[in-house]
Design goal:
CATH architecture of chain B: 3-Layer(aba) Sandwich
Bound molecules: adenosine-5'-diphosphate, magnesium ion
Structural class of chain A: mainly alpha
Strand order of the largest sheet of chain B: 6-7-8-3-9-10
CATH class of the largest domain in chain A: Mainly Alpha
Oligomer: heterodimer
Number of domains of chain A: 2
Number of domains of chain B: 1
Distance between the termini of chain A: 39 Å
Order of helices and strands of chain A: HHHHHHHHHHHH
Number of helices of chain A: 12
CATH superfamily of the largest domain in chain A: MetI-like
Radius of gyration of chain B: 19 Å
Helix content of chain B: 25-40%
CATH topology of the largest domain in chain A: MetI-like fold
Number of helices of chain B: 12
Largest sheet of chain A: none
Number of strands of chain A: 0
CATH class of chain B: Alpha Beta
Strand content of chain B: 15-25%
CATH topology of chain B: Rossmann fold
Shape of chain A: flat
CATH architecture of the largest domain in chain A: Orthogonal Bundle
Largest sheet of chain B: 6 strands, mixed
Radius of gyration of chain A: 25 Å
Shape of chain B: globular
Number of strands of chain B: 10
Structural class of chain B: alpha/beta
Order of helices and strands of chain B: HEEEHEEHEHHHHHEHEHEEHH
Largest interface: A-B, 20 and 25 residues
Helix content of chain A: over 70%
CATH superfamily of chain B: P-loop containing nucleotide triphosphate hydrolases
């Protein structure tokens, strides 16, 4: 141990001669400044976005906006409550589809994935990740909206769920791969069936990583706009059930921001602020609940 | 089916005895390994292994690293086949019944044969208590009135009870390495196996923890057939009744430990135990 230390730079060898030492210290300083500059460069756009949104959002903000349903642009008491409700509906439906399906697919790929069916499934998942989300929206429109006969928050949720499946499947597979085989073998050696071992040992040991990946995926679908345009569509009232069309925050931002009405543009800023806060909340909860898990996105 | 197995295994046993000289003198075999070949893909790592292992004895498997000790051990509880492309030929009889027969469920085999690994591996998501009863609980036994006494009894067997009885709720992974390994032994014997396999159980432990585990191995021999892989010859000499020397996937010599160490029949064995290679 002591010998090792000596050769690691604490003893007297040529490696630590003062000239080398100085060069190394200088390189170290330069690298520090380069890194710090890059860091600031990244922070500038982030903070300018946050500043813009909060500056404009707070300027237009009235508490009533959160409580009131939508309305005409000339009525200055209309709000964004319908879009908040719609986003919650769509996100919950999306999660109800995307989380279980993603976890099952990811687990299957990680634990039972040594066959050609799994290879095909893996290709499908990788393709799904890269499909533009607007296409997912169109597909759901063709398969769900046209059949049901009208837009609905259910169709929107299905589109979000489809987007979520590959995200959750990938994290699940990655997190399961991180579970050390020594625990999995211990489970089999105790006489657990493959199913039991997969659930109680493999998934249980990967659960923190999976949960944190799942929360990030929830945050991601919450901000999706394109897949909702032809599915949940829009409405000026909160959906009374999942078969109603519904406004969502991202679609409201899109519609109101490009409208000519100043009041609606203000609502769009507020909606943007609410959406960011919801997102930050989820990220914050993730950090708080799973401080030690590495996050892959 | 089981009759076939018994009659068919008779002549094999004779042959087994010729290499397993002195093993079955007074007592019958708990585990019999017959013409066992093991493969990873096309690579054969065990060649025609024949061994009979008696109940309530400690059998040591020694040999240089890479000679197939772990593989041999893992064919006895059908863990080998879980590795990618791993394959087995031949038979392993547990109480005269071939565990590789088509109608045998490997899960049932593994419940009868416990295993302790080289690196202590208590489940990191479980408390000490839950680790001990992991096998039982995951098989569906949840009644605390049954589980509590089992936890106490098995932790006492491995000498861990006094050290941990006040914090059974702590994570198993918070214990020291030696304690973790004893916890793993407790977990293996809590399901009441008949055979306990140990793959270099002290390889990652310090001498004091090693001594405790070795004492424990000698204790456990009263109840189980133990098969212990070690690449430490002193350990084999200290704990085992019988020793098998494996080299390049072949069983070179197998017999009572004293005889193997004092009067090895094969010159290869002698060279290995006198430290000329390995
Ligand atoms: N998963 C595997 N795939 C391919 N070869 C393996 C695998 N595991 C072990 N082997 C090979 O099998 C031989 C025996 O290994 P092992 O049984 O682990 O030896 P030991 O326990 O005596 O060190 C070695 O040559 C090793 O390289
Ligand atoms: Mg080994």
């Amino acid at each position: 141990m002591i010998e090792e230390r000596a050769s690691n730079g604490f003893g007297k060898d040529s490696y630590t001669s003062s000239r080398h030492w100085k060069t190394r210290l200088n390189i170290d300083r330069i690298m520090f400044f380069v890194t710090a500059a890059c860091f600031l460069l990244v922070l500038i756009p982030l903070f300018s976005i946050l500043f813009q949104v909060f500056y404009n959002g707070l300027r237009a903000f009235k508490f009533a906006v959160l409580l009131n349903e939508g309305g005409s642009p000339v009525s200055t008491i209309s709000g964004i409550r319908h879009a908040i409700t719609g986003t919650i509906y769509a996100t919950l439906i999306g999660s109800a589809i995307g989380i279980p399906a993603g976890i099952i697919v990811g687990t299957y790929l990680a634990e039972f994935g040594n066959n050609s069916f799994a290879d095909i499934l893996r290709i499908i998942i990788n393709t799904m990740v890269s499909i533009p989300t607007i296409i997912t929206g169109v597909v759901v429109w063709a398969f769900v909206v046209t059949r049901v006969g009208h837009f609905s928050v259910l169709a929107g949720g299905i589109a979000l769920g489809l987007i979520m499946i590959p995200l959750v499947a990938r994290t699940t597979e990655e997190m399961i791969m991180l579970v050390s085989p020594i625990y999995i073998e211990a489970g089999y050696a105790l006489g657990l069936t493959r199913m039991r071992n997969t659930i109680s040992i493999v998934l249980a040991n990967a659960s923190k990583g999976i949960a944190s990946g799942v929360l990030l995926a929830v945050a991601r679908i919450m901000g999706e706009t394109a897949p909702l345009l032809f599915t949940a569509f829009f409405s000026q009232a909160s959906p009374s059930n999942i078969f109603d069309p519904a406004a969502t925050l991202p679609v409201l931002i899109y519609n109101y921001a490009i409208s000519p009405f100043e009041y609606w543009q203000g609502l769009a800023w507020i909606a943007a602020m609410v959406l960011i806060l919801l997102n930050l909340d989820i990220l914050f909860i993730t950090r708080l609940m799973f401080p030690e898990t590495h996050q892959s996105d | 089916m089981s009759q076939d197995t018994t009659t068919a295994s008779k002549p094999q046993l004779q042959k087994t005895n010729s290499i397993s000289s002195g093993i079955l003198e007074n007592g019958s075999a708990k585990v019999v390994i017959e013409h066992l070949n093991a493969f990873y893909g096309t690579k054969q790592v065990l060649h025609d292994i024949n061994m009979a292992i008696r109940d309530k004895t400690v059998t040591a498997i020694i040999g240089p690293s890479g000679c197939g000790k772990s593989t041999l051990l893992r064919t006895i509880n059908r863990l080998h086949e879980l590795k990618r492309n791993a394959r087995v030929e031949g038979r392993v009889l547990l109480d005269n019944r071939d565990i590789y027969a088509p109608d045998v469920n490997p899960v049932v085999v593994r419940r009868r044969i416990g295993m302790v690994f080289q690196k202590p591996n208590p489940f990191p998501n479980m408390s000490i208590y839950d680790n001990v009863i992991a096998g039982l609980k995951l098989q569906g036994i949840r009644d605390k009135a049954i589980l509590d006494p089992i936890v106490e009894r098995t932790l006492k067997v491995v000498g861990l009870w006094d050290e941990v009885k006040d914090d059974l709720k702590r994570r198993g992974t918070e214990l020291s390495g030696g304690q973790q390994q004893r916890l793993c032994i407790a977990r293996a014997i809590a399901v009441e196996p008949e055979v306990v396999l140990m793959d270099e159980p002290t390889a990652s432990l310090d001498p004091a923890a090693t001594a405790i585990i070795e004492d424990l191995i000698r204790d456990l021999r009263k109840q189980y057939a133990l098969i212990v892989v070690t690449h430490n010859m002193q350990q084999a000499a200290r704990v085992s009744d019988h020793t098998a020397f494996l080299f390049n996937g072949k069983l070179i010599e197998y017999g009572p430990t004293r005889r193997v160490f004092e009067k090895p029949e094969q010159s290869l064995t002698e060279q290995y135990i006198t430290g000329r290679f390995g």
